Recover the amino acids of this structure.
């Protein structure tokens, strides 16, 4: 069974408590404190496992916890650190905070190992608190508590080209013909129940990865059929290869099919629908009509900048021209893989409410200054160069009532706001 989504619960280890004890040795009646430190709790990591291609394992195990740190002991003995936990996922897994749906990390590209939650730090034993005035401290520091998160894991296939089209138009046949993939092929709908990946090897060319996305139907973007479960797999693709039954072997109009599928793509994600698209008019070996339907498809879509290639996935007619055109187009595109940016920062999330900050007006510099550990931490986690990062920054200012405090101080449009070397103009 293919699984491309999973909901799990993860928990780091609690830090061990520091110990309170005193040296008790012969001839040393008043020994000093010798309480050991607690061990650090285990951390939670995600790692990419090349041998995995589904999230099926998470159907059976939904809770993952790192080990707790042991408490300190007498004679300056520190507690043992808790064991880290390494959760294995297939490449292409996007990890999100469940409640908000915000991306924590994308296990793709160079991101092979990710520290999700750090274990709680072990507490200091009483030996650390001895002073000239307090030589026998009877207290020690407790270990930091465990942190926990509920996560949504989503597997998004990594491919350069996404095959889309109605069921039974020949996508699986095309994939098996041009790649090393061996999808199940039969003459009925929804034979493809999971995305099939294949590598296209071309002579004197780099080649590319292509994914056969299960047959879409009208209403797929609203979750009808299997649509919503699989549409996410084309979110990474750079180019859409739209396969249609040019011969209308099932009585459907190929032009109507193209518009219907594009409508579903638009409804699901407008950004995907705007990506370059090529139409593969398949089953030309089965066209017997006097009027060539391929010419009708070309007349409809080529003026819109969408090239149309007549092909036969069965006989191989037209495949070479199609594949080399796809390859040339990909070479002109950005070679970086589509990686989903981080929107949710666990460490910042856990610390956010406990860290202070101040909002003041600096008359000397005629600027409003916002600073403090909470602000410094937020800026270190946020990529202000990206659109999502800047949006997170704005939401942070709003949700923490910083904008409200600035307005209470009398800030006006065009005034300067300074945060740790960064300056912004204020606009409502």
């Amino acid at each position: 069974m293919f699984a491309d989504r999973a909901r799990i619960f993860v928990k780091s280890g609690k830090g061990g408590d520091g110990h309170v004890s005193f040296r008790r040795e012969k001839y040393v009646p008043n020994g000093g404190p010798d309480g050991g430190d607690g061990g650090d709790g285990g951390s939670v990591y995600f790692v990419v496992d090349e041998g995995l291609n589904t999230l099926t394992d998470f159907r059976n195990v939904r809770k993952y916890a790192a080990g707790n740190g042991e408490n300190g002991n007498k004679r300056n003995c520190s507690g043992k650190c808790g064991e880290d936990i390494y959760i294995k996922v297939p490449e292409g897994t996007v990890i999100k905070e469940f409640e908000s749906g915000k991306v924590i990390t994308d296990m793709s590209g160079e991101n092979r190992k990710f520290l999700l939650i750090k274990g709680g730090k072990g507490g200091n034993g009483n030996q650390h608190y001895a002073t000239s005035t307090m030589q026998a401290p009877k207290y020690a520091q407790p270990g930091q508590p465990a942190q926990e998160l509920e996560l949504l894991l989503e597997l998004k296939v990594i491919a350069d080209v996404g095959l889309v089209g109605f069921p039974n138009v020949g996508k699986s046949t095309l994939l098996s013909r041009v790649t090393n993939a061996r999808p199940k092929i039969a003459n009925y709908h929804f034979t493809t129940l999971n995305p099939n990946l294949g590598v296209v090897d071309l002579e004197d060319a780099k080649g590319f990865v292509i994914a056969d996305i299960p047959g879409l139907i009208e209403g797929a973007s609203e979750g009808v059929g299997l649509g919503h479960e699989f549409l996410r797999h084309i979110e990474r693709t750079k180019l859409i290869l739209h396969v249609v039954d040019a011969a209308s072997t099932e009585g459907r109009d190929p032009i109507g099919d193209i518009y219907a599928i594009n409508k579903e793509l638009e409804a699901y994600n407008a950004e995907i629908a705007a990506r370059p698209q090529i139409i593969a008019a398949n089953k030309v070996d089965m066209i017997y009509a006097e009027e060539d339907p391929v010419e009708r498809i070309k007349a409809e879509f080529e003026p819109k900048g969408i090239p149309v290639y007549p092909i036969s996935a069965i006989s191989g007619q037209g495949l070479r021209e199609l594949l080399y055109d796809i390859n040339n187009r990909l070479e002109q595109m950005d070679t970086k893989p589509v990686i989903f940016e981080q929107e949710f920062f666990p460490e910042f999330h856990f610390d956010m409410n406990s860290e202070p900050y101040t909002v003041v007006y600096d008359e000397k510099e005629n600027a409003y200054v916002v600073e403090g550990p909470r602000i410094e931490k937020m800026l270190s986690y946020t990529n202000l160069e990206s659109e999502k990062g800047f949006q997170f920054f704005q939401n942070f200012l709003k949700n923490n009532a910083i904008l409200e405090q600035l307005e209470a101080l009398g800030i006006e449009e065009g005034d300067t706001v300074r945060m740790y070397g960064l300056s912004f103009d204020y606009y409502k």
Notes: The radius of gyration is 30 Å. Confidence is low (pLDDT under 50) at residues 183-192, 223-227. The longest strand covers residues 148-155. The longest helix spans residues 254-268.
